[in-house]
Hints:
With 201 residues, the chain is an alpha+beta fold.
Amino acid sequence: MPTRLQFWFDPASTYAYLSAMRIEAMAARRGVEVEWRPFLLGPIFKTQGWDTSPFNVYPAKGRYMVRDIERIAAARGLPPFRLPDPFPARSIKAARLALLAADQEYIAPFMRTLFQKAFADGRDISDGDVLRECLRAAGVPEVDALFAAADGPPVKDRLRRETEHALGSGIFGAPTFIAPDGELFWGDDRLEQAIGWSATV
C-alpha cells in the first residue's frame, strides 16, 4: 500500500498553487500517495493576530512574494503569475467543493484547474461561474448538485473540523505537508524533502 503524504492547502494560497502543479508527479516517482487536505487559512491567521494574509499585512513581503512566484513560475514552465484581485480571494466555497471533489476522487484535477484560474488567469475563485468552470474542466459529474451540496450543513461542518484539525496539528500556513509519522514540512520549497521523508518512513 502506498505511503500517504498529507498536502494541506487553502485554495487562495499562492505558494500552495506552486505545489499543487507538481506534487502528484513528484510523489508518484517515489511511490508516495498524495492526500489532498483543504482547509482555511483565515482562522489560522486570526490566532496569530492577523485579519488578512501576511502578504497584505507586510507590503514589502507581499511585493517580494509576487516577484518570487513570477521567477519560480517561469523556471518551471508555468504561465506567467498573476495576483488576483481581490487577494486573498474568499476561498470558503472553493474549499468546500474541494472536499466534495475529494470524495469522488476528482480533487487533483479540480484544484489544478482552480489554481490556474486564480494565479495564471487572475480570476476570482469566489465567483460561482469560475468554480463551475473548474468543476466541469476537471470532469466532475453532476456539477449543479455538487455545487448545491457545498452549501449544506454537513460540508460546512466538515470544513470547520478540517480547519480545527489543521490548527491542532500545528499548521500555521500553506502549503503544509505532513508525513505518515507526523513530521511537518511547511512551504513549497520543502516539498522535495517532505516526499523524500515520506518515502523512507
